[in-house]
Amino acid sequence: MNSLLKNLKIMFIMFQIYLILNTERNVYSMRNLMSPLDFSVAELDALMDTASDIIANPDKYSHACDGKILATLFYEPSTRTRLSFEAAMLRLGGKTLGFHSADSSSATKGETVADTIRVVSSFADICAMRHPKEGAPLVAAEKSSIPVINAGDGGHHHPTQTLTDLMTIRSLKGKFDNLTIGMCGDLKFGRTVHSLISALVRYTNIKFVFISPKELKLPEYIKEHLDSLDNVEYKEVSKLEDVIGSLDILYMTRVQRERFFNEEDYVRLKDFYILDKAKMALAKNDMLVLHPLPRVNEISSEIDDDPRAGYFRQVRYGMFIRMALILKLLDITV
Ligand code: NCD
Questions:
Q1: Per-residue pLDDT tens for 189-237?
Q2: For residue 157, how far is its CA from the centre of ligand 1 (angstroms)?
Q3: C-alpha 184 to ligand 1 mean position (Å)
Q4: Are 117 and 187 in the same domain?
């Protein structure tokens, strides 16, 4: 009897050691997504291959995340990104929980992001966080025991929109090299633009045309980075009509009202660009128009049926690439 108890005790201790080692290994190999540069070009290619396979064979993936939970912690408004994450997890067989505004979370009681993520780590397997403060998802990732995805932090980065944009460009243009890409609108506060530029400069012979009013020009730190690269050319202009004919892709953006210091400036700048049929007539026959959405007035609905308008197809690619991302960060192979 005594030796049986002793053996049981040894087995129990060994089991505990196994659990500790296993948890440590998971924490060390755990990946987050804070910026598009967290993945190598090869990893991005593999991620897009998975997304394409999901599009072709959705049934194969419909139980890949059975029993898993995604938390969506959105301290800032969102329609597409949050619903796209939720749809992605549901289509993988998983479940979701979360909040969609800071007002409905304990942030109103003064809870820090670091404490919230520790709590959420006990409930969910993976988390997507949007926050108005630059760097907040990184703070969360440092305290988290589950993978954290930056779903937009202030005017800084929006890596999953970039994955969406890359997936759309690869699917509809078939390449990333040798492209002239116009980015138009609020280049100062538009985080989707900042993230997309950082991802595109890793390809060959990229030419950027930055189209904005002088008040909404690309931040200096990004231009300094571009100046240090050999494979990238860029120019800055303020009139869309002057350059639209040279573009392979036109990436339109909304003027980011919530990041303006005063309403007067916003009202003055909000309708600076309106892409309409007359301007589209000046563009190449195969120019692709993208927009992270929501749009306000910057793309007239009269061009929605133009075959070059890619922005609603872009939304759908976003869901598939987020499915691929969830699988990658949860280390699930199908
Ligand atoms: C973008 C964002 O939140 O930065 N939207 C999105 O996630 N698709 C763009 C924007 O709000 O203008």
A1: 999 999 999 999 999 999 999 999 999 999 999 999 999 999 899 999 9
A2: 10
A3: 14
A4: no
Full domain range(s) for residue 110: 2-158+316-329
Q: What integer pLDDT is reported at residue 9 of this predicted model?
A: 74
Q: What is the mean pLDDT of residues 180-194?
A: 97
Clarify whether residues 59 and 176 are in a common domain.
Answer: no
At 180, which CATH number? 3.40.50.1370
Q: Which atom of ligand 1 is nearest to the CA of 76?
A: 3
pLDDT category of residue 23 using cuts at 50, 70 and 90: very low
Nearest to 324 by CA among 53, 32, 98, 127: 53
Q: Count the Cβ atoms, other than its own, within 10 Å of residue 147.
A: 21
User: Among 219, 162, 170, which residue's Cα sits nearest to residue 33?
Assistant: 162
For residue 258 the two structure tokens come to: 């919530």
Domain identity same for 138 and 211: no
* Element of type H or E holding 82: helix 80-91
Please identify, by atom number, the ligand 1 atom nearest to the C-alpha of residue 192: 4
Q: Are residues 283 and 325 in the same domain?
A: no
Report yes or no on 334 lying in a domain.
no
Closest C-alpha to ligand 1, atom 7: 81
Residue identified by tokens 């128009």 is 289
Are 93 and 195 within one domain? no
Q: DSSP strand E in the chain: where?
A: 69-74, 95-99, 126-131, 148-153, 180-184, 206-211, 232-237, 249-252, 288-290
Longest dimension (CA), the chain: 90
Condensed to tens digits (0 to 9), the pLDDT of residues 252-310 reads: 999 999 888 789 989 999 989 999 999 999 999 999 999 999 999 999 999 999 999 99
Task: Give the integer Cα–Cα distance in Å for 184 and 244.
Answer: 10
Tell me how many domains the chain contains.
Answer: 2
Alpha carbon separation from 300 to 89, 262, 296, 333 (Å, rounded)? 33, 26, 9, 42
